[in-house]
Amino acid sequence: MAETKQSHLNGAYYGPTIPPKQSYHRPGRGSGLCCGPCCILSALLKLIITIVVVLGIIVLVLWLVLRPSKVKVYVENASLTQFNLTDNNLYYNLTLDMSVRNPNKRVGIYYDRLEATAYYDGNRFGYTTLPTFYQGHKNTSMLYPAFSGQSVVALGSSGVADFNQDKTQGSFDVFVRVNLRIRFKVGPIKTNRYKPKFECDLKLPLSSDGSTATGFTRTKCDIDF
């Protein structure tokens, strides 16, 4: 009996084998790839910021290399041989010699459209178009706007009095604007079109005998981009 008990103890039964405990790790919120709308918007925002920064650097480098300067415009000479007012009808004959200087070494300019308009006392009385052209580096080009004809102007009683006073003094204040459509050329690259203006405040002596009047002072024009 003792032998049987000893044999039973030596072959003791400890039950079925227990499998090893499996560990489970719950991924945190910051793990894995982000695919939600917020992540897409964040990535898109970063991309836009990167593009803006890169474009800003490119523009800065181009400016430092090219150092573009504004075009310089002067009315070199002007001839006003007729400027008569009869019953609000203005009869006029005006010609201008304008110089346009491109001072840049590496920038050319395409003048795709030029429209010149003349005003007296805020009233438009003359309009003309000018030939298109390309202006190279460090180049001076000449423009010759000419206004001739008849136009109805609404000066009113005070405006007519001012006109008669100007006529007595022998000179008139005339404003000339040239509306442009231009493109810049840097090497093989051409920019989009821009629409600046040349604006010229002129004091024009009137010739009494129809010939070119003397006494005009060379006048610088402003450029409005």
List keywords for this structure.
single chain; alpha+beta; 3 helices; 12 strands; 225 residues; seven-stranded antiparallel β-sheet; five-stranded antiparallel β-sheet
Summarize the SSE layout with pairings.
Elements: H1 2-10, H2 37-66, E1 72-86, E2 89-102, E3 108-120, E4 123-129, E5 133-135, E6 139-143, E7 146-152, H3 156-169, E8 171-186, E9 189-190, E10 197-205, E11 219-220, E12 222-224
Antiparallel strand pairs: 1-2, 1-11, 2-6, 2-7, 3-4, 3-5, 3-8, 8-9, 8-10, 10-12
Structural account:
The chain has 225 residues and is of the alpha+beta class. It has helices spanning 2-10, 37-66, 156-169, and strands at residues 72-86, 89-102, 108-120, 123-129, 133-135, 139-143, 146-152, 171-186, 189-190, 197-205, 219-220, 222-224. The N and C termini lie far apart (118 Å).
Q: Helical content, roughly?
A: 10-25%
Helix-strand pattern, N to C?
HHEEEEEEEHEEEEE
| Radius of gyration based on Cα positions | 41 Å
Taken as a percent bin, the fraction of beta residues is 35-45%
The largest sheet is: 7 strands, antiparallel
* Structural class by SSE content: alpha+beta
Oligomerization state: single chain
Distance between the termini: 118 Å
Mean pLDDT: 85
Low-confidence stretches: none
Shape: elongated
Number of strands: 12
Distinct helical segment count: 3
Give the gist of this structure.
With 225 residues, the chain is α+β, with helices and mostly antiparallel strands.
